[in-house]
Amino acid sequence: MANPMYRQIAESLREQIESGALGPGQQLRTELELREQYGASRNTIRDAIKWLTTLGLVETKPGQGTFVVQKIDPFVTTLTADPKRPGGAEIAVPGEDGYGEVDRSPAGQKRKLTYSDPQIEIQKADGKVAEHLRVAEGSSVISRHQRRYIDGTPWSLQTSFYPMGFVVRGAGRLIEAGDIRDGTVKYLADTLGLRQVGYRNWITVRSPDMTEAGFFSLPQDGRVGVFEILETAFDQTATPMRLTVTVFPTDRNQFIVNVGEVPAEQLITDNT
Amino acid sequence: MANPMYRQIAESLREQIESGALGPGQQLRTELELREQYGASRNTIRDAIKWLTTLGLVETKPGQGTFVVQKIDPFVTTLTADPKRPGGAEIAVPGEDGYGEVDRSPAGQKRKLTYSDPQIEIQKADGKVAEHLRVAEGSSVISRHQRRYIDGTPWSLQTSFYPMGFVVRGAGRLIEAGDIRDGTVKYLADTLGLRQVGYRNWITVRSPDMTEAGFFSLPQDGRVGVFEILETAFDQTATPMRLTVTVFPTDRNQFIVNVGEVPAEQLITDNT
DNA sequence: GGGTATTTGTCCGTATGTATT
DNA sequence: AAATACATACGGACAAATACC
To answer: pTM of this prediction?
Structure first.
């Protein structure tokens, strides 16, 4: 009896969930019913439910009840692709490159990627952008931002940064709204002779900010994290030519990295 | 007055933290003091602090107080390396391959990797192992498990799986305790002629289980997630020869993926 | 649309337990 | 041993969101 009562109650409910007695989407008994069932006060029941909530096992809906969470069929993105392909990896501004990529879920369905028109701004490079793009902090950069969806559900938020000098040197369409035909990679090669020869993805996980939580409909308490992937693309002189920051919720995204000779992807059903 | 009081109090404290008025590691005023300061009940103050806790901004210590969390200097691991190098990527059983890898933090220090002796078991392949290793579910596999540390702090938990047939065919040392000289990749090449020509990393984020939370000293409420990286290694016939599952806490780990021609790593100080 | 019952959310006060100093 | 500070648990009251008639 070392454990507090609310944890024991949570454990009891957890077993019911993981054994399948309470299936995904199913409603739990109300707090008042559980209060009688376990002989505890309503506040203690609420502590148990709050615990399960932070564990991501249940969610509460005011006026309705408490429900076992549905597991989301995850999106799978391959981070390694042809370094010279327009757009680089699949995650690299596929929208701007006119690619209607398909993402394959573990269950094997093909999915449809859509994206908003790019929202373009001229910004001062903050510390992170300046360091990865190797420009002076505070210098002007072009920012192209998109919201991206798979089958209509919010998938990722992406922002690409380019040095302002690119526009001066002849790549004026970078600051025009609307997609760039054949993508920015080809456009920069054609106009400035900048060939993308490789890129580096820097993968971190952090808590979502308010904008991200809103766009992805994540719980506001920061329980669900987001991947933040910084992709730095390099030209033939090993100089950074683009920084793309993409944010994905961790609860619905997985990534694949292939190295060396690897057979085509097996479609694997994840039954964790 | 749209927001509940505990959220307003949390917001007030959050601003003090993010503005720097309350520095990392610094102690907040006690619940009783805050109760008078904000004119709320102690339970409401506790709700505000609990909210900040799930946001990962503060931590509470019984008998001591509430403190602003320290940001951890993260470990950075490169997932793309020579596919034929013993051990594959840096994350691939470097311990078993006798590599004393160094990890470079954003701040640029070199760090020392240590690891426990492998703990070896014969197990039945569960669904996940069977599918990635492409063996029948329930067939025997060799499991080699290690705890890995950087500078003495827990870094990752790693388990490698090999088909049991490898031992029958002559790779008997796989089931012996202790490190294998020159690593398992070279050992399997020497004994069975299995050359590792590539590998695939499958990156997911999930909540830690009890064992993991204990080893990494993570809060038990599952607030901090863990990376689970499944590395499947392939031999020259494109057959899976090894599955390595590695678990890293997301609060102290970052990953790098290089594609194409990429300059040597810039040491970047992350001042997010 | 309105009203009512149901269910979770917020807030209070109090008492006692447990960990740390 | 004592003081301090957070943790658990109780009970009660009202608010807010939702569903249903």
So the answer is: 0.86
